[in-house]
Amino acid sequence: MMIETRAYARAGLLGNPSDGYYGKTISISVRNFGASITLHESPELEIEPQTQDSNVFKNIYHLRDTISTLGYHGGIPLVKAAIKKFVEYCESEAIRLPNQNFTIRYRTTIPRQVGLAGSSAIVVATLRALMQFYKVEIPLPVLPTLALKAEVEELGITAGLQDRVIQCYEGCVYMDFSRELIEKQGYGYYEPIDPRLLPKLYIAYKTDLSKVSGKVLNNIRQRWEQGEPHVVGTLQNIAGVAEEGRGVIKAQNYDRLNELVNQNLDYRAEIMTITDRNRAMIETARNCGASASFTGSGGSIIGIYRDEEMLNRLFVELKKQNARVIKPFIV
């Protein structure tokens, strides 16, 4: 029996990065890119390495560039962490797993470390494959929390629930991560929004701006935990953007939504350093008449464009910065 599962890239539209701070977000799944898992029964449990898991390099510069893009590990630690958390979940729920081993292999087309949630997609796809193989049902609201624990508790990655929620639910989702909800039930309030209500969206990304998002957000975490008023207040404002955006999308008030996308990034810039090259992408898109904010921690942007003429300007102007522009495919 061959099992194949997928999880798609995601883009934060509003509220990012407040999800890790009991905030609110709206995200979309981006089916242009995905991570896939292939799993089949075998005598021993084996995780097949991929090219990015190799320890053989052309030269020292190749090693440096690989680490800059992928970090010090490929996808195997993510698969291992997902398997471990799956087993622990089953034990906590008194689910007895049959004595069956498997061989598992991952593939990914998601550009790494540019804010499109490539790592969490591998984890979510792995959990889905394990659920099928062992015939275990994990409640949908619980699944994102389990995926988050795999990265945070096992691999020490600084992350929030947003990526995992949208990759589990797909489409477009409004998320409320209020402290009361998280502490009471272990997950937030997740409300799907009809993607047909969304305006024309574009995404632009530059792989040469890749970085490990946990490193980008670590300083904010420390300042938030210390209760720095400006950081705490700004993150609350960012969450408020998503809260307002929920109603704005349903009313299809695209002019106001355009303003909120820009406002999200502008709030973020008050507490986080925006590199010159990331800032150049934002300003180029806005000069074309589109709105622009980060999809994640940087390296890619998302916004609203008015018509095909504006989209063509985005293609041309952002290409000058070696950025690729796509129209996100959302189901």
From TrEMBL:
It holds the Pfam family GHMP_kinases_C. This is GHMP kinase. Residues 78-171 form the GHMP kinase N-terminal domain. It comes from Runella rosea. It comes from the Bacteria. PANTHER family: WITH PUTATIVE URIDYL PYROPHOSPHORYLASE-RELATED. Keywords: ATP-binding, Kinase, Nucleotide-binding, Transferase. GO terms for molecular function: ATP binding; glucuronokinase activity. InterPro entries: GHMP_kinase_C_dom, GHMP_kinase_C_sf, GHMP_kinase_N_dom, Glucuronokinase-like, Ribosomal_Su5_D2-typ_SF. Gene3D superfamilies: 3.30.230.120. Residues 249-320 form the GHMP kinase C-terminal domain.
